[in-house]
Design a protein that fits this description.
This protein has 868 residues and is mainly β. The chain contains twelve helices and 41 strands.
């Protein structure tokens, strides 16, 4: 067990005592002042009713551009994943296997496809390598962000599907005057580097130009960003990787016996000699255990710990007033992403047919190697294809999103605001895998020239040209949304005027993914995969009411109905209350229902293979990784959820600049779309449960060659916790200060009957019971200083090892210098104390979970902004 040192204990006790946090939250006192000054009505994330007061029944956290710059964030992924409300596992720049270069957000750990991402209040197109079910955050450059609003409450009644866990609304810069050029860069300065050098650099340059004129404004800009890769073997804390698939190859689980020159030995009849890979001659006529390190392959030198990428973005937004009552607003964003991942050379695995037709059971290999075949007359040959080089995954992805809205005012009755909008999104992808191996050609090559494969020597270039190929895949997503909304004053009550919003929306979404022809035919050494293609459309109608019930009590209500052409209708509602106990204290609560419609890939996804770690109860498989065919279901129903929040907002009139919020939250998802527990299905089938055999495609004799795992509506997810936020702005010691603090206490997280609270694991990430961010800013004239602390509490390994993983604290500092009125320079250090990632027993990369912990060590960054 890891022992906490005195510093860690002091940090944790201090955090608990002060109840501090590090996201920038909405300041309740400022909101009240704004309302008192009768400022114009604005839209708040989580509602379509125009209002003056930023504080609503639902909790919203705001992260502004100043905080983004001070923390040295390079991507939207970093901005969001460092927030305490995030949990589980979100793929991103440290995900080398399976993400395809994407970055996602996972609010509350409930899944990336259950957090809705908006751009300027409207949906962002799903994006990635094709038929994706969530937004790739890489499509949104940091340079254009004005602020990020995180609604930490279910919002399906307002926004429809996918908002079960909450909403992330990214607001872009507008009303900008002049030209701004920013250049920034970063690199590691870590003692964890094996050579003591620098790596993992980021560099970015952005240009933004804007002009305000009598009837509107126009902003245009562009950014370029490049991130360098970091190899797993470049960090001291990483132990050598060990794979059982080795360069020399194994046949039937045996390895070739080599002479002093590295050539395979032969017997008296000239047949190659193979031996067990677990024992070897001891030199005295007996045997001894082999050295496992001699029979395993270290894949770390060919594996990225941080993946390289390049991004090019162009964006523009503007507004134009046709008259005092009619305005046009539009925004366009285009991003090209070129990213790569790298993994060890292909672990090729083929089944060689070695028996004659007359004898197909327990026969001896016809090549005379003395290795017995299985009951299908086959012998398994495995070889790490180091001669072909590492597998290099490459993506070239274009994403376009454009939105246009015409809004105005109707001078009818009490007067109404209206808006009609259209949003279009398109994502196109080409993805490649270099140095892939064609299993069909490999088998034939072995039959034609077994000595070349079995002699332990490198393969010739002619053989490599025959068995390797470049895998080419294509995919994409498309979205069309037409909507209209009207809002204003609904009616009068004794306590005031009720506001309302009502609207209709029609959305069309499609997606496709076309794997390489070799993969579709099942001829690759990677798992077979079918093409995916499909679409759906949904028509929606909704309404909201904000009703003052008394001078202190206000009710907020929403009702929405969505009708899909795939499964039918879904109706959701929200009911919230705010109670202003006095000028300093407001109580709030919300109860809501939500839903998530099945995505294109879940409805129309083609069969895809996945090699999973399973135990064969029949004992017939030779490997602990068994091929499972994952299948979709066009008859899936939507997920259903219920959420509840209750909290208090405190802004004492006697303490200027201070505000605090405390909120309890809970979510319960039923009929969750999930895959079954394959291991449980194997065990049940082996015990005689025929239904389990049928569902998973298992033959009566335990034949697992067609083992499958379908998507079904049988999942369940429950989670609850407490969020606490403090913000304090004050003057002292000759400067202006601001203190921000954000804490999330996870009380419970259960999924499909398993409790993950306070645990961490390779496939689902971390669910720390306590997470905290603290941020302190100070400014004296032309100099600004920022300190932040990110704390992740104790977790334990989930699964076979229940040992405590421990807690960790990351310290970051930065400084800003206003050189002139038009030039600003900043410098900072992330992970000041160069903390190493905590070891995780069943971690997914390098013995840890890079999606949870900092894995590249201390970073230094600097930038300069010039305004004209």
């Amino acid at each position: 067990m890891i022992r906490k040192n005195s510093l860690t204990l002091a940090i944790q006790m201090g955090i608990i005592a002060s109840v501090t946090t590090s996201a920038v939250a909405v300041n309740a006192a400022q909101a009240q002042e704004a309302a008192a000054e009768n400022v114009e009505r604005i839209a708040v994330t989580g509602s379509r009713i125009q209002r003056q007061d930023m504080e609503t029944a639902s909790p919203v956290t705001v992260i502004d551009s100043a905080a983004i710059k001070a923390e040295g964030y390079n991507t939207v992924e970093e901005i969001l994943q460092t927030q305490p409300a995030m949990a589980g596992m979100s793929v991103g720049g440290t995900t080398n296997n399976g993400a395809g270069g994407r970055a996602t957000v996972n609010l509350r750990g409930m899944g990336a496809n259950r957090t809705l991402v908006l751009l300027n209040g409207r949906r962002m197109v799903n994006s990635g390598t094709g038929a994706d079910s969530s937004v790739d955050l890489n499509t949104i450059p940091v340079a254009l962000i004005k602020r990020v609003e995180v609604l930490k409450d279910g919002a399906s009644a307002v926004y429809g599907s996918d908002a079960i866990a909450g909403v992330v609304n990214i607001i872009t810069k507008d009303d900008f005057e002049g030209v701004s050029i920013e250049a920034k860069g970063s690199t590691t300065a870590s003692n964890q580097h094996t050579t003591g050098g620098h790596d993992g650099g980021n560099k970015e340059i952005s240009i933004i130009a804007g002009k305000n004129f009598d009837r509107g404004n126009f902003v245009i800009g562009g950014t370029f960003q490049e991130r360098e890769g970091v190899r797993l073997s470049d960090r001291k804390w990483v132990d050598p990787g060990r794979s059982s698939t080795i360069p020399g190859g194994t046949l039937g689980g045996r390895v070739p016996v080599l002479d002093a020159d590295g050539n395979q030995k032969v017997d008296e009849e000239g047949n190659p000699i193979w031996q067990s890979r677990t024992i070897m001659p001891d030199g005295n006529g007996g045997i001894r255990d082999r050295d496992p390190s001699k029979d395993t392959y270290d894949y770390n030198p060919d594996t990225w710990l941080q993946t390289p990428s390049k991004r090019y973005s162009l964006f523009s937004n503007g507004s134009y007033e046709f008259s005092n009552d009619v305005m046009l607003k539009a925004d366009v964003l285009y991003t090209k992403r070129q990213s790569t991942q790298r993994m060890a050379p292909q672990p090729a695995n083929v089944e060689l047919d070695v028996c004659t037709a007359e004898k197909t059971k327990d026969c001896v290999d016809i090549t005379g190697l003395g290795i017995h075949a299985n009951d299908r007359g086959q012998v398994t040959y495995k070889r790490r294809m180091v001669d072909a080089g590492p597998r290099i995954y490459e993506q070239d992805i274009d994403t376009l999103r454009a939105s246009m809205a015409l809004s105005g005012y109707l001078d009818i009755g009490n007067g109404y605001d209206w808006e009609a909008s259209y949003t279009y999104g398109r994502n196109d992808s080409k993805s490649y895998v270099h140095n892939s191996v064609n299993a069909k050609n490999m088998k034939q090559s072995i039959y034609n020239n077994p000595n070349a494969w079995f002699n332990g020597q490198p393969l010739s270039q002619d053989i490599l040209n025959d068995v390797t190929y470049k895998e080419t895949n294509s995919g994409g997503n498309e979205m069309h949304i037409a909507s209209g909304v009207i809002s204003g004053d609904a009616f009068e009550t004794s306590a005031g005027t009720a506001g309302f919003a009502a609207g209709v929306e029609h959305r069309y979404e499609s997606g496709f993914f076309t794997p390489d022809a070799v993969i579709q035919r099942g001829e690759g050494t990677a798992a077979q995969q079918d093409a995916t293609s499909g679409n759906y459309n949904v028509t929606s109608a909704y309404t909201e009411l904000s009703v003052p019930m008394t001078e202190k009590l206000t009710g907020e209500f929403a009702l929405r109905h969505d009708h899909y052409n795939t499964f039918g209708g879904a109706t959701t509602w929200k009911a919230g209350l705010t109670y202003e106990a006095n000028d300093s204290v407001m109580l709030r609560t919300v109860a809501a229902t939500g839903f998530r419609a099945p995505s294109v890939s879940e409805l129309f996804g083609g069969r895809s293979g996945s090699y999973e770690y399973l135990t064969d109860p029949w004992g017939k498989t030779e490997d602990d990784q068994i091929l499972v065919n994952r299948v979709s279901d066009p008859n899936l129903k939507p997920e259903k959820s219920a959420s509840f929040t209750a909290g208090v907002v405190i802004a004492p009139q006697s303490v200027d600049g201070f505000s605090m919020t405390i909120d309890y939250w809970s979510f319960d998802i039923k009929d969750a779309i999930t895959r079954l527990d394959v291991q449980a299905g194997l065990n049940a089938c082996h015990a005689g449960d025929q239904a389990a055999c049928d569902v998973h495609g298992i033959k009566p004799d335990g034949n697992l060659r067609n083992l499958r795992n379908p998507l079904t509506n049988v999942g369940r997810q429950k989670t609850s916790g407490i969020d606490q936020n403090i913000m304090y702005q004050f003057e002292g010691f000759g400067g202006d200060w601001s203190f921000n603090n954000d804490t999330t206490i996870l009380l419970n997280f259960e999924q499909d009957g398993k409790n993950y609270t306070g645990t961490i694991g390779q496939t689902y990430g971390g669910f720390a019971a306590f997470k905290n961010n603290t941020r302190l800013n100070a400014r004296w004239g032309d100099i600004g200083f920022n300190y932040s602390l990110r704390y992740i509490g104790d977790m334990r390994n989930y699964g076979g090892d229940k040992m405590n993983v421990g807690d960790i604290a990351y310290h970051n500092i930065s400084a800003t210098y206003f050189v002139t009125d038009n030039i600003v320079a900043n410098f900072g250090i992330k992970n000041l104390t160069d903390e190493k990632p905590l070891p995780v027993y069943n971690g997914n990369t390098g013995g840890t979970v890079p999606e949870v912990y900092n894995t590249i060590g201390r970073e230094v960054y600097a930038g300069v902004t010039m305004n004209f």
